[in-house]
Amino acid sequence: MQPWQRLVLALGAVAVATTALIGVVYSDWLATNLFGQESMVYYWSPTELEEKRAQAERATIRLGGMVRRGDAPDWDQKLPLEFYLEDGANKILVRSTGAPPQMFREGIGAVVEGRLAEDGAFETDRVMVKHSNEYRVEEGQDVMKAASTLSN
Amino acid sequence: MIDLIPLSTLGTTLVLGALGMAAAGSVLGFVSGARSSLTGLQWTRRLALGFSYCMILANVVMVAALLSRDFSVSYVAEVGTWEQPLHITIVSLWASLSGSILLWGGVLGVYVVGIILGLGDRHRIYQPWMLGVLLSICVMFALLVAGIANPFAPTEADVLAGLNRAFGTTASGMPADGPGPNPLLQNHWLMIIHPPTLYLGYVGMAVPFAMSAAALLAGRLESGWMAPLRRAFLVPWAFLTGGIILGGWWSYAVLGWGGYWAWDPVENASFLPWLTGTAFLHSSMLMHRRASMKSWTLILGMVTFLLTLFGTFLTRSGVFNSVHAFGTGAVGPVLLSFIAISGLFSVVLLGLRVHTLTEGAVELPRSNSSVPRADRALSSGTRTALSIGLWAALVIPPAAAVCAALWFALPVTFNLPFLSEPLTLPEWAAFAWLPLAAVLLARRNLSRDFMIVAQNATFSVFTLVVFLGTVYPIMAEALRDKKVSVGEPFFDAFGFPLGVIIVWLMGLGPMLPWGQTAITSAWKRFLAPLSFATVMVGVLWATGITKVFVLIALFVCFAALAANLGELIWPSAARLRRGGGLTGITDLLRMGRRRWGGHLAHYGVIMCVIGMALSRGYSVEKDLMFARGETVTFDIPGETEAYALTYVGGDRDVQSHRTVNLAQFEVSRAGVSLGTYSPAINNYKMREEGIPSPDIRSTWSHDLYLSLLSVPPDGSRASLHVKWIPGVLWIWLSGLLIVLGTAISVWPERRRQPRAAPHAAPETA
Fold this sequence. Notes:
The complex is a heterodimer.
Chain A: H1 3-26, H2 28-35, E1 40-44, H3 46-51, E2 60-68, E3 81-86, E4 91-96, E5 109-116, E6 122-129, H4 141-151
Parallel strand pairs in A: 1-2, 4-6
Antiparallel strand pairs in A: 2-3, 2-5, 3-4, 5-6
Chain B: H1 7-35, H2 38-67, H3 74-79, H4 86-91, H5 97-119, H6 127-146, H7 157-167, H8 183-186, H9 190-204, H10 206-218, H11 223-254, H12 265-290, H13 294-317, H14 331-353, H15 380-413, H16 425-442, H17 448-480, E1 484-486, H18 488-511, H19 519-542, H20 548-577, H21 583-590, H22 593-618, E2 620-627, E3 631-634, E4 643-654, E5 658-669, E6 672-677, E7 680-684, E8 691-693, E9 695-698, E10 702-710, E11 717-726, H23 728-746
Antiparallel strand pairs in B: 2-11, 3-4, 4-5, 5-6, 5-7, 7-8, 9-10, 10-11
Helix pairs in contact in B: 1-2, 1-6, 2-5, 2-6, 5-6, 5-9, 6-10, 9-11, 10-11, 10-13, 11-12, 11-23, 12-13, 12-17, 13-14, 15-16, 15-18, 15-19, 15-20, 17-18, 18-20, 19-20, 20-21, 20-22, 22-23
């Protein structure tokens, strides 16, 4: 093989690999089957979750919204914790086996990771609150933005 | 003195000087490589040293600026403050983006000095090419430091005005104080050593990249160049390994979730070059010994550097929002174009020049006629039966790992219809031909050489899997504006079987000789480790460790441990039996450093995998809420006695740079007090959210991990994340062992007279 033929071969291989990668991204079927429902984490707002309830089964979801107090008087002092996350249009009941962080209170933006339970509530073991700082973990930033505009 | 020349000007001058010398040196390096000019080489070396000294001095100037709180330097205005201890002020050098890139340049300078001093006057054919490539990389980083991420730029007027407003003004018109560095940096001593260790690992990969490119440019690769290449690779590889493990430890000790590895994109970014780098270290042995796999080894070496650039990009560009991201900026696109340029350079270079390396491969005698002497007494039928039996035994543990992953993990990871429920018997049968094919295919390849090839294949697959899972979310967001992330189940489903195969090969490799193995002697070699592992796993099973994943992982670990120890002791023991007295033992002590180093690294990996298997398999965690004085029990399944935790009360300690909110818990077990734990939440100024400071007590068998989630100012209540984690201490210790092993094998050996032929030196796989 001539050197230039090798070069074409090498560049061709890189091109094929890149195309394949982009193909995986564009093909939903391939992506869900490669990474699987339960190992994909989606970032949704309460409204999106209401709209996609059927799709949400089995999937791991990060739900972001603003905290509204739960129905029980000691909603923030007993595990499992029960509170609502809302984005203005919709609110979702969240049940958490994880204790919330220090800043957790009504009216703060929060993100929870978990999945939908049989009874329609959202079950999680992890509650993260929104914090305004340069070095924040900005997971679900977009939904958080929506939540913070709401609270202003 | 300092007042005469502003530090900002001094620093910028040094950085520009470094840039100029790197640019001139890289051009001169290529020219003197093409012309084989010795004078050119000498001047290239001088320019390279000039670059290094400028870059290192620039780092010193920045530290001086940080120490003198010279807020006219933009970086100091970003991270400086008076209210912190001395060591935090110094490490603020890597507290933010532009400072860490300056440090990057300084580390590159240290490596350039190191390689120039290390090579000295030897390898004159390769050196100019190597320096040309290396200095081109230096140009890229110097451009970044001098341009868009210049930490020495004078502080902008509105930033100064803002600081003056917030902190007050001194007589000289400068702000009285500054915002201070990222609290995460200040919170734990591990943050002082984890980032520079990882930088040393990442940046150092530029040297073997340049050396590989030099071999391609010079059109030759002799064993004289392979030895320094391997050594130049081992140094950053050891730092990379140490950096990854320190990062896991930091995450464990600071972030409060009680884990050390989450398949976070930035963790993956450091793991990817480690995978290709480890593959390189092993294939380079084959290259050295057989002069085969030259081009593959060079590709691995070059890919490793590209992956470190990719890791830098992921960490520093802000495409991922993680604890590592320093926010977005123009640095991302520039780094991306560096990756593109380096990648294109590598591909073109390989495409044009790789054929120049193909000579000199030593072919092994492989024909059927050359049956090893030990096997000639056997009939061919017996030989075939013995070898199929052997391979069947060898394929069982990895096959079990794959099956376990298929059975438990894949139905979760994949939603393929036929995998969504456990496979039926006929479906299993449909898969059964695969191990059989593996047995037949590999029957004639029972050698250390083959195990290294198999190791390389496994590491490559692992790299591909991790790369795909890491890149998918970025691509999905960039191309389709879809926000997803690929979670742990995907990585675990692949990582478990691949990890088991890797440890298994690590056991088989050292047991087999180079070239070809007689079936009968192979049986003898494997019997002891396999029996040892079986007995050990039986014992553990009896003590209550019954999870299939954990047992498979422990089985291969024990087999690999026994196999490696056997390889160490076997020859000496044989000599002792033959009446050679204790010469075998003295030989063992005097054997090559590389061999000792390889062994230690292997034991480290085994220790690490044992720790991971136990901690992943048997951790117990729970969130608990307390009122003051309340006692809550924490059960460990499989252990008879539960822990009892009593919340005694909260406390508050106001320090210069932070407020420590701690809660005290008295912990006891079976009526025996285990002391008072004081987990805390540290609140730093300039940051609303507190940083947890868990209280962790380690023992050889398990850790008890108490992380405070919240405590109100009056201390009336507290909520706590409690975790019981077995075996986790072994993971941190394993890092020490691996780094020690690498250090031993890198340490220069006294030159022997006459020098032994490189092909004869014994090594481990």
